[in-house]
Design brief:
Blueprint (H helix, E strand, L loop, with lengths): L2 H15 L9 E4 L3 E4 L2 E5 L12 H14 L7 H5 L2 H14 L3 E5 L2 H15 L4 E5 L4 H10 L3 E4 L4 H12 L5 E6 L11 H10 L3 E5 L23 E5 L9 E5 L1 H10 L1 H4 L6 H13 L4 H20 L11 E7 L1 H13 L2 E2 L2 E2 L9 E6 L6 H14 L1
Parallel strand pairs: 3-12, 5-6, 5-7, 7-8, 8-9
Antiparallel strand pairs: 1-2, 2-3, 4-10, 9-10, 11-14, 13-14
Helix pairs in contact: 2-11, 4-11, 5-6, 12-14
């Protein structure tokens, strides 16, 4: 055992005692809202493949075509030789999809948030940063890298945000507001129209994470940001509803040009390879026309929330394809998840530090490939397991 291993073994033991040690489980997405785990096929309520595109034939074929034409790797970072005509064309297509002047590709949503936020704050030293308490960990990481203090407003409490802006933001040289449009653990939505109005009133920039809205919500699946003017920068991913891998930021041409020069997670990372670009391109062909799938997904959400309420389970303010069943204690939630898996359902337990203490939950993620019968079967299994 190395010197490092001894320290890490102690840290793992500490996690074990706190009930926070995790392990990896091999899984394979299959058709019809299912997942293969070991030798069992389970009804999958844990994956973020919201539109069922991860195994769509067009995405698979386009990824093959682009890999055959361009190879398996991009060869370098974007500022060296890693930028191809395909990257530039795809970024133009993403900008058109999001209704912005320009867009920029990143490897992951985490990388985008963790790189873009400190780059923005480097350009406006002393900026006051205001964040919804439930923003993604990658946003918190970006703020930490920047060394900035954040003023957290209560979740979706925009009156509290206005109070903080008046108290903490007036004397700052600039103000930056960070939020998600759909919150990943609660499935509720931010009021982007009011946030944009508040940002204008306080001369603040507004950065919105659309990871869980892209493809699912808004006209043609363009996200909730497509319905609101006045957002300065939007981030989203291709690894959820769009069935592939990667992320984007979309905004003004000046903003994107600045990030090309200042976002370290972009500057020092190898460019996404051709197969990834091909899958994104194919998804952008499909998603705008998938209104029927989006309507079905919304109906499944309503059915599940009604069923959870009937069982006396709290689903919070969810109004999307993400529906939490808030249980509370960690061990109770883990035990419930295990009982559901034994009954043929994958419904992962989410616990601290991902969610606040006392709010451990089953995070139920719906897919357009689910049937109403799948929802009813899950509810019956929950009732039996409880």
């Amino acid at each position: 055992m190395s010197r490092l291993d001894s320290f890490l073994e102690t840290a793992l033991a500490r996690m074990e005692r706190a009930g926070q040690r995790r392990t990896l489980h091999a899984s394979t997405l299959t058709q019809g809202g299912r997942v293969l785990r070991g030798d069992r096929e389970l009804i999958d309520f844990s994956s973020n493949d919201y539109l069922g595109l991860a195994r769509h034939p067009l995405l698979i074929e386009r990824a093959r075509e682009w890999a055959a034409r361009g190879g398996t790797g991009s060869g370098a970072s974007r500022l060296v030789t890693g930028t191809s005509e395909a990257h530039l064309a795809l970024e133009a297509r993403i900008a058109a999809f999001k209704g912005t002047e320009a867009a920029l590709l990143f490897a992951t949503g985490w990388q985008a948030n963790a790189a873009v936020i400190p780059a923005l704050l480097a350009a406006i030293p002393g900026a006051a940063v205001f964040t919804d308490r439930l923003i993604h960990a990658s946003m918190h990481a970006g703020i930490a890298v920047a060394g900035a203090r954040q003023h957290r407003f209560r979740h979706n409490d925009l009156d509290h945000l206005e109070t903080l802006l008046a108290q903490k933001g007036a004397a700052a040289p600039a103000r930056l507001i960070l939020t998600e449009s759909v919150f990943s653990m609660d499935g509720d939505r931010a009021d982007l129209a009011r946030l944009a109005a508040i940002a204008r009133a306080h001369d603040a920039a507004l950065f919105v994470d659309e990871a869980h809205a892209t493809g699912v919500l808004g006209p043609q699946g363009r996200g909730l940001s497509a319905e609101v003017d006045g957002l300065d920068l939007v981030m989203g991913t291709f690894s959820k509803a769009l069935g592939g891998f990667g992320a984007y930021v979309a905004g003004s041409r000046i903003t994107i040009d600045y990030l090309v020069n200042a976002a370290s997670g972009f500057v020092f990372t190898t460019a996404p390879p051709p197969a990834v670009l091909g899958a994104i391109d194919a998804a952008l062909d499909l998603v705008p026309a998938m209104d029927a799938e989006r309507a079905h997904l919304a109906a499944l959400g309503e059915r599940l929330r009604a069923g959870l309420a009937g069982l006396g389970l709290d689903h919070g303010a969810s109004s999307t394809q993400i529906v939490p069943a808030v249980i509370g204690p960690e061990e109770t939630t883990l035990a419930l998840s295990r009982r559901l898996e034994a009954a043929g359902f994958l419904a992962s337990a989410i616990r601290p530090p991902t969610v606040p203490p006392g709010t451990s939950r089953l995070r139920l993620a719906l897919r357009a490939s689910h049937a109403e019968a799948d929802i009813d079967a899950l509810l019956a299994a929950l009732e039996a397991a409880l």
